[in-house]
Amino acid sequence: MRRSAFLLPVVVVILALLLSSIFIVDEREKALVLQFGQIRSVKEEPGLAFKLPVIQEVVRYDDRILALDTVPTEVTPSDDRRLVVDAFARYRISDVVQFRQAVGVGGMRAAEDRLEGILNPVIRAVLGSDGVTSNTILSADRSALMGRITEQARQRARPLGLQVIDVRLKQTNLPEQNLDATFARMRAEREREAADEIARGEEAAQRVRAQADRTVVELTSDAQRQADIIRGEADAERNAIFAQAFGSDPEFFEFYRSLNAYQRSLQGSNSTMVLSPDSEFFNYLKSPTGRTEAPPPSN
């Protein structure tokens, strides 16, 4: 009984030591085995691993591609138009031993602070270099700029045991103090463009109206000319008919013209004419035969 009572605690201690010496490495991470702060082994393959109990510890680091959103940074391109750039980076731990030696016990938080300290100066340097304008940053051509930023950040982050995979610009805005002035300038430009469009429209409308007025005058003149020609031809034809009728029967033609004269002069219900009794106007009305009386022969 005494022996069993003695062996039981020993077995429990042995099992506890055995279990504390075993750890599992996930496929999404890398692990370092440390002894008194010094690196003893690196575990990069997933599966079971062993360490010395008590005197060794395991530190795990994420082996996946990570993302870091940088603090918005103000840059000044070569055209002196200040911009606020918001970027993000994708990175991973490429050398876990170098990473541990660079950041120490600070871990990922210290690494991201140092990486952000690398990214912001690189972004300002590249976007503020000669030949880079705000229009280039805001256009689709900025992919080349992001490539330069990525390459420079990759070189500076290599001593940290980090691999910068990509750096992208999320947003590019104007500083708050410049927004009002920019909006006012944009509004003035749009108003000027609108005024130019209105002026061009008025000019085009005047040309159209002038062309229409000239067309109206030309059509009216041509119509009047054709009407005068037709009227003249009709008058000539009428006169020819009258002349032919007069030549065929002068007495009837004179009688017809007198009746027309009576009709035109006696229109209306209150017509008044003042004529001499012996006026020739009423020769046909005074003649019992409807003919003009020949004057008596003079002696």
Which helices and strands occur, and which strands form pairs?
Layout: H1 2-20, E1 22-25, E2 29-35, E3 38-43, E4 47-50, E5 56-62, E6 66-69, E7 73-75, E8 83-93, H2 96-103, H3 107-127, H4 134-138, H5 142-157, E9 162-173, H6 176-248, H7 250-265, H8 283-286
Antiparallel strand pairs: 1-4, 2-3, 2-5, 6-8, 7-8, 8-9
SSE topology string: HEEEEEEEEHHHHEHHH
Q: Which structural class fits the helix and strand makeup?
A: alpha+beta
Report the sheet with the most strands, covering strand number, pairing sense and barrel closure.
4 strands, antiparallel
Number of domains: 4
Compute the number of strand runs: 9
Question: Could you please say which CATH topology of the largest domain applies here?
Answer: Tetrahydropterin Synthase, Chain A
Which stretches are poorly predicted, pLDDT < 50 over at least 5 residues? none
**Content of β-strand:** 15-25%
Mean pLDDT: 81
Q: Identify the CATH homologous superfamily of the largest domain.
A: Band 7 domain
State the helicity in percent bands: 40-55%
Overall shape: rod-shaped
Distance between the termini: 200 Å
CATH architecture of the largest domain: 2-Layer Sandwich
> What value does the Rg take, in angstroms?
57 Å
CATH class of the largest domain, anyone? Alpha Beta
